[in-house]
Amino acid sequence: MDNDVSAGSGITTVVGRLALGVTLLAFGLGYADVIDGVSAADAVSIAQYVGGIALFVAGLLALRDHDAANGTAFVALGALWFTWAVSADGSANAAGVFLLLFALVVLSLGLGAGDRLGQGTYGLFFVALLVMAIGTLADNDGLTKVGGWFAVAAGAVAWYAATAALAHWPTALPRRAAGRGVTATG
After folding, report:
1. Kind plus residue range of the DSSP H or E element containing 148
2. Closest listed residue to residue 149, CA positions, set 120, 122, 127
3. Cβ 143 vs Cβ 131: under 8 Å
């Protein structure tokens, strides 16, 4: 195995982001209640196998490739997704506290993310979990649906980040001219 791959450029990052994106999309669409007959309970299998096991394995492989940031993120998220999936039938208060703790982990991951798409994914995911935790604890279905939409947005950003790496799409917004006093000609 070639260990000269730079951190974050390996296929494990793409696989991890795809797994996270698919899980977030299923989770978010279930909570947003946008598709008739599809609920958050329908996302449990995806969360357990794709978000839990596959993401955890992607994290271990990233750690093996010396990608500490993505490896740590994917292992932690994989463990949390698996835990969410196997404990989905708990009380509302327990679910709210779990979502709040999950949000704190995602906040830490977002602050440590190296690229803008990673920060965007984790930032939207953090807001989703925070709003959903508050909605669950307050028994407010409206807040839970709003959190679901934030999760859908986070899943879309994670999916784009993975697809952009494979398809060589742009991953950064153009910046304005650097420095003071620099003006555009024309």
Report:
1. helix 141-167
2. 127
3. yes
- What is the Rg, in whole angstroms, of the alpha carbon atoms belonging to the chain? 18
Query: Angle CA(61)–CA(63)–CA(68) in degrees, nearest 5?
Result: 145
Q: Per residue in 8-61, pLDDT tens?
A: 457 889 999 999 999 999 999 999 988 888 888 888 889 999 999 999 999 999
Residue among 78, 38, 33 nearest 55 (CA): 78
Contact 17, 145 (CB under 8 A): no
Q: How many residues does the chain have?
A: 186
pLDDT digits (tens, 9 = 90+) for 85-130: 998 777 889 999 999 999 999 999 999 887 899 999 999 999 999 9
